[in-house]
Amino acid sequence: MVKSLRIVGGYRIVMELYSPYRVRIYEYNDRIKDSGYYLKPLHIVHKVVGGRKLKYLYFGRYWYRVIKRKGKIRWVYVGRDKPDPHLPDPPISPFEGLGILVEGEDVLVDEKTYEALSRISIKIKGENLLPEINV
Question: pTM of whole model > 0.70?
Answer without folding.
Answer: yes
